[in-house]
Amino acid sequence: xxxxxxxxxxxRLKSLPGLETRPTPDRLREALFNVLATRIDDCVFLDVYAGxxxxxxxxxxxxxxxxxxxxxxxxxxxxxxxxxxxxxxxxRAEVFASKAAAVLERMRVDIAFLDPPYEISKEYDAAMSxxxxxETPLVIVQHSSRFTPLEECGHLRLxxxxxxxDNSLSFYER
Length: 174
Hints:
Blueprint: H1 26-35, E1 44-48, H2 54-61, E2 66-71, H3 74-87, E3 93-97, H4 101-104, E4 111-114, H5 121-133, E5 138-144, E6 152-153, E7 156-164, E8 167-173
C-alpha cells in the first residue's frame, strides 16, 4: 500500500497481515481525493474505522491541516502510529483506540470518511447519526456496491455515489 498523491506521494505504508482490515483500493482512494481536491486544503479530516490509516494519511499528504483517526483494533492502531511516525506526521494527527460511536459525537471536523465493516450495517447507521448530531458538513462512506445507502440521515443528504467494482463511495452534505 502507498500514498497516491501530494507531499508523500509514492511513499509506502505498513499494512496489517490477514483479513482483519479491508484497505481502500488505490483507485478508489484516487477517485475520492479527486472529488475532494477543492475541499481538502487546510481542513480537519476524520478517518473512522481507519485500519492502517491510509485514507487519513492521504488527506494529510494532500494538504489537510489535521486528521483524527478512530480505530478499535489495537494492532491497527499500532500500525497507524508507525505509519504516522515514518512520515513525520504525529503532530498533525490524533488517534483514538476506541469504538466509533464513543467518540464521533464530540468530533468537530470538516470532512468525515467512514469505512465500517461491510457486514455490520448497524455501525453505519450509528456512525451516520452521530456525525449528523456533530454537524459534520461532509461525510463520505465506503461500502459494498451491493449495499443501498441511506438517501438522508437527519440533515445529511446523499448527493453523489461513485462505484468501482465491489466498492462504492457515497457522499453526503449537510
